[in-house]
Design goal:
Blueprint (H helix, E strand, L loop, with lengths): L1 E3 L3 H6 L7 E5 L5 E5 L5 E5 L1 E2 L8 E2 L2 E4 L5 H16 L4 H10 L3 H16 L2 H19 L9 H9 L5 H20 L28 H16 L8 H13 L3 H5 L6 E2 L4 E4 L7 E4 L2 H9 L23 H10 L7 H14 L4 H8 L4 H4 L7 H19 L6
Parallel strand pairs: 1-2
Antiparallel strand pairs: 2-3, 3-4, 4-7, 5-6, 8-9, 9-10
Helix pairs in contact: 4-5, 8-9, 9-11, 9-13, 13-14
Length: 399
């Protein structure tokens, strides 16, 4: 067995032979270089697991000469030697490192074992979109244990131009790491790298239709019904928009509403499922009359019937674009009709808990966005009282 002090010069001087041969270092026991017949050189470290002559021998590869220097290989061998002296097994540790799960696997497990089983279809679709288009391309190749809080903070910061989307992705990462800790036990419970990353402040959109704008929308809907706007607009699309205005329901709740969920006697919709679970949507007389006039399609269980037999309407985006343009409301979204319903309740003096119950809000924080609107009737009332007092009591000389 050839022995030699391994240096850059001595390694470069080694010439390949017909068969692979090994040269061991004279200074560090177990450290060696192996030279193949094709001239390729690679560093190794030989040790016994647990000590003693009967202990099994391991000789893992450190790296190829050229990719690592002699000094780098020697330092790794010295670290491994120190680990062996304290009972460690560098080869087993390396195997664990290489087989450590990657984020790609975690994404797949999360979708298969959590999201697909526990999330509603719309939420699942959104998770899949964020994972496949955003998170997997960035984090997928990383090992789970290598994803640090700093790396997540850096990624989140890179999305500063789109704060809402950045915060949704951060929230999803937090759920995924919680799943990794609680369900898979891949990381420590109680702490994970997505915790402590500060979210961007979001500016909530607040668009409510005024009485004049509601009148404009009503006129556009009337024209849509008579075919004055576009003959291709379905009566069901018009009925759906009217129902959204009259009930404040989410558009998915009306889009997928079934006839057996309509209770005319109780004047309500008895939804089996919604974003917040089973719920009731109460119907004002106008909404009840509207439903009574909606034509039923034989064999179709849906109120808002679509073009395909037995299916509900799918495309509301195109007819809504035509209608809102005709109403001179180009910036109004479908969801703003729900905001408008709530804002009218707030302006009428209804309490926030009552508005939240009508909308089916799960959190009082969601309803709180309408708090400032509930001041309107109070302001009007105090102005009226103030005028009455002034007419009798008078004002100051400077008033």
């Amino acid at each position: 067995m050839t022995k030699l002090k391994l240096t850059k010069r001595s390694v470069e001087a080694l010439q390949p032979q017909e068969k692979t041969f090994t040269v061991r270092d004279t200074d560090l026991s177990g450290f060696s270089i192996r030279v193949n017949a094709n001239g390729k050189r690679a560093f190794y470290y030989r040790y016994r697991v647990g000590g003693g002559r009967g202990a099994p021998i391991r000789e893992p590869k450190i790296g190829d000469f050229g990719q690592v220097t002699v000094d780098q290989a020697r330092n790794i061998a010295q670290d491994w030697a120190a680990a062996v002296r304290t009972g460690g097994d560098p080869m087993a540790i390396r195997h664990q490192e290489r087989s450590a799960p990657k984020m790609d696997t975690l994404f797949d497990r999360y979708l298969a074992e959590h999201a697909r089983k526990r999330k509603k279809p719309s939420s699942l679709r959104n998770d899949i979109r964020m994972i496949e288009k955003c998170l997997r391309p960035h984090f997928g190749a990383m090992r789970v244990k290598d994803v640090s809080r700093q790396k997540i903070r850096s990624y989140h910061s890179s999305l500063e131009a789109t704060p809402y989307e950045a915060n949704r992705q951060l929230a999803l990462l937090s759920k995924i790491f919680t799943f990794a800790a609680d369900e898979l036990e891949w990381i420590n419970q109680g702490d994970h790298p997505a915790k402590g990353v500060k979210r961007f402040q979001e500016t909530k959109r607040r668009r409510y239709l005024s009485e004049a704008e509601l009148a404009q929308l009503g006129e556009a809907l009337r024209k849509a019904e008579t075919g004055e706007l576009q003959k291709s607009i379905s009566v069901y699309a018009v009925a759906m928009i009217r129902m959204l205005v009259l009930t404040g329901a989410r558009h998915g709740e009306i889009l997928k509403l079934r006839w057996d969920e309509v209770n005319f006697e109780r004047s309500c919709l008895e939804l089996r499922d919604s974003k917040t679970g089973a719920k009731e949507v109460f119907l004002p007389p106008a909404a009840k009359q509207l439903l009574a006039n909606v034509p039923r399609q034989p064999g179709n269980p849906y109120v808002i019937a679509g073009a395909k037999e037995g299916q509900h309407l799918v495309n509301i985006k195109d007819p809504w674009a035509v209608i809102r343009t005709a109403a001179s409301l180009p910036d109004v979204r479908i969801h703003d009709l729900r905001h408008t319903f709530a804002s009218l309740g707030a302006r009428a003096g209804m309490s926030l808990p009552l508005i939240g119950a009508l909308l089916g809000h799960r959190s009082t924080q969601t309803t709180a966005r309408y708090a400032h609107l509930s001041d309107d009737p109070l302001r009007a009332a105090v102005e009226t009282i103030g005028l009455g007092i002034t007419s009798v009591f008078g004002t100051t000389k400077n008033g």
